[in-house]
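Researcher: Sequence of DNA 3'-5' helicase follows. Predict its structure.
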Amino acid sequence: MNWTKSQSDAINTDNKNLLISAGAGCGKTAILTNRIIRLMLEEKTDIDKFLVVTFTNAAASGMKEKIRKLLYSKIKEKNNDKRYLFDQISNLEKANISTLHSFCISVIREYYHLVDVDPAFKIIDSTNANILMDEAFDMLFEDRYKKEDKDFINTSISYSFNADEEEFKNILKEIYFFIYNRPNPFKWLREKVDLFNDDFNDIENSMFIDIIKDKINGYLSLALDYSSKAKDKAMRYEANDDLLEILNMDLDGLKNTQNLMINNLEKFITLKPADIFKRFKAGGLKGEEKAEVQNLRNESKDILKKALNILTFNYKDIIDVVHELYPHMKTIEQAIIDFDAYYSHLKSEKGVLEFKDTEHLCLKILEDEKAREEILSKFDYVFVDEYQDTNLVQEAIINKVIKENNLFTVGDVKQSIYRFRQAEPEIFLDRIKNYKKDEKINKTVYMNTNFRTNKNIITGINTLFEKIMSKKTGKINYDENERLIAGRDEEIESKIEVHLINKDTAGVDSFDSELSELSTEENEITYIALMINNLIGTDIYDPELKEYRKVKFSDICILHRSANTRIKNVKEIFNKYSIPVTSEKEIEYFKTLEIETIKDFLSIINNFKDDITLLSVMRSPIFNFTVDELLEIKISTRESHYYKSIMSFINKENVNITLKDKVKNMLKVINDYSDRSLYTSVPDLISNIYEETNIMDYMSALPFGNIRVNNMKTLLIKANEYESFSNEGLYGFINFMDYAKIQSESGYAFSEDSENSVNFMSIHKSKGLEFPIVILMGCHKMFNMLDTKKPIMLNKDLGICPSLIDLDNKYKVDSIFKICAKIVENNEILSEEMRLLYVALTRAKEKLILTAYSKDTKKLIDNLPSNITPYSVEFSNSYLEWIMQGILPNKIYEEENNIIYEDNNFIVYNNKIEDLLTELSTSYINQKDDDFYLDDKIINKIKDDLNFKYKNIVNTTIPRKAGVSSLKNVDLLEVGNNVINLREAPKFKQEKSVLSSAEKGNIIHFIFEIIDIDKLKKTKNLKAEIDIQIREFINKKMLKQEEVDNIDINYIYNFFDSNIGKELIHSKKIYRELPFNLALKAKDISEKWKDSEEEILVQGIIDLTFEVENGAMILVDYKTNHYNNESEKKELLKGFEIQLNYYKRAISTLMNKNVKHSYIYFLSKNEIEEV
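Model: Prediction complete. Tokens:
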């Protein structure tokens, strides 16, 4: 093997601790395994003298397999000790190559007496752990309520939504998990809480003010950039001195403001934007030129406002707020200490440990010098893979098991993407710094030769990340130590493609075209589908074959930041374009078909009187009743409950004898299992069900049958684990399954394997993989900053960072801790996003494509900062903004043939879907294939078909079906195979912190759909009942907390408190989301079809209609449309009137009712208008 110099150093350097910084595609696993083999051959170090720590069990298995193969290859070589090598192969399975958790467990089992643990302890799964945690929290809260602990109750109420104690429990739980990722959790907690009692004598020179000043300085630097850009544009457009003087004053004012902030922050926060920005003057500019300059100036002004809003109170007020929070923080500290005692006691009683417990107990054992010496003596060398993902507790353990110079760590900070698991890339960076201090026994090797990707893409990746990745955003400067070096020498021309998709013109003009109805995301997926069909059959270089071959579907991988929530759309749209797709979607274990089926059967064994579950079990493969049979039972008996129908049916004469026997047999089976459940353990009962019914055979025959059967076997394991620490029998296990379902415990991943299909996965899943063609989609998606909106944030340096919530005076203010935590968390999120982008872009071998939606590409480019700096990167909101800053040298919009920029490494397209359709059809026409031949007869037949003209041409413009909303634009309506839907499904469930007015309207609409009006009728406190129901919707995962936080709940209160709302509540007949089909003559719809006798099936969904006095109906239609003035509102109402007339006609025709009043409710404005 021809190793590079850095690879050779990593394998052959002796008597030093080695830290290998291995870039993407540089072969780090090969280096690690070959170093182990060398040490075994040269030093006769037995395999059991190595401690090798991997990130996952799968990685450990893969590592052992690679070592095994290398050992066998060495056996074939001359002069090697074959007996010794065979011995190493025999001992390989017992070798300490495992996750750190596995190592910790083995240490505890050996030294259990030092930590007072039962050596037969079991590792508890997350569901059972959560059950015990809830029990511990119940004990804690019950104790506090019994003692009438006012401090605890006040703190709980302050940090709970609507005084819901579950919210406070979740906060305590988050703090508890966070501190346990520190080596001394309660010491850390105490020290951080005590900060709230500090006198802050030198606050001006504290880390808090440093963090705030840095953030403000970043904003002001960016504001200066935009003001400078505004001035440059004004000069280019030859503005007169009036405007140039204003812009120069802007620049001087911002510079003076920056100096003031550095020297006197308290005075800075008293400024207002009007102190710096004077009134704008046109300076002779008009139209677009004036607008461009003014927009850039407004951008600068907005940035200044953000800078001034970071800190809004003086140092004295800052300290007062912190001191006011101290009692709350002490209450939280003691609550967590007491909770830990309760929880530890419960775990001890059950003889179970969590994974985090194993780390802390192992660390405690290693603090015993004798035990540590014994453990140290077992290992000559310690290897740690994926070192960039280590947390502080794991680092402390590693430092306890190493000697002076026997540590080998390998990883890449640029690929640290597991922050949600408390991974700390700073640990890796700190070790690099420390190694420089003593290079006699320490060495850092930078291994950057990438053997995966072709030269052009490597150069493009380097060019981009040199500009956008820094210590500020990414945790590391992308310098000569981090730059990738192309390890492949083929000269392959392949530019990184950026495709900006303009949705506004993405579809064709027809109103009922599928493309015009698509959402932004669906447009992007459609564009990608067309692009893939364009790629298939083209040439691509294959480095393994060392020649070109044709592209196939399996060459392509599509990556997305959040793939799991997009797979449904991808599959549906790809199916339309005949593109096979393979994806892995994690299925929540307790929501899988097989587990739901067993759970329902156990529930019926326990309680026969649950109608819904009974029907589910009867329809299941266990009893296999048909729908007709279920109906026959119901119709024959007319009982109110189905279980009563069952009992009545078996006692009735003159009924279907065969069906009667089938029901009797079912009852016999259920009663038999019910009797057995009284004396049989839950695991034995489930085993009996598996053996005595056909359920396992049935599940094995379904798609993914082997996975389903394994799941059923896993349920047996879970039942055994449950019984090991609970004596509540079948009833308790059913409750456990219900609880686990609510907790959404991860299950398995369904992968639709195909030898030739496009891969679709998340960036996280793609780490370590490679594909000839990679498409990163969704680059325009805004970064998710929801974590910065929590009432209490956590930070490893700042500690607990709360807002002060004063319920008596009804105000909320962020503490200095919270202000700083928001800033730091923002940087942490952006740094991880930067590393995720790096991982995504380094998966490609031959072709890399990035796609994004761009509403206004010119505006996007015009608004880019003129100079790319760490600050300009920090204040970006998406991958797209980073990419465009890094690619475009002059930040000026220029477009020719849909290309807005091109150089040796990049090409940026500004495209519409119709452009790709044209390109696709052209490429098909131009394809030449020796095996493809059309004779003249076929060609003439195609020509005849294409030139065919229909006699009744007007009828060809009439659609078979149409949605109501399309009929107000009937002149744009053309033939289509699909119904034009009345409205799109809500698009508000997206990963972004700020919602548009329409999205907020969709949330309110959704609440109106699901709210229980019967409960509103019964309540005396309308507002409280609405609050309770919304809280239930959140708990049941029907809504997200952040969605509710983004809307004004008063809109819902006001609606139901209005005259229409009161009529609705008191109505006896209410219809929500009422679908209808109505056949109408085409000539009655449009003048252009006056001569046609064709019919159109009009389809729609009525949002709300309800009956009032005399049987008349009230009609309400919800709209998310936004308007700026009365004129715009009138235009909207004019269009909606046509739509509501069809609704009225549907109600009149289908319900034989008259509509008394019809209303449009503008959700985003909270306004109701009669139409």
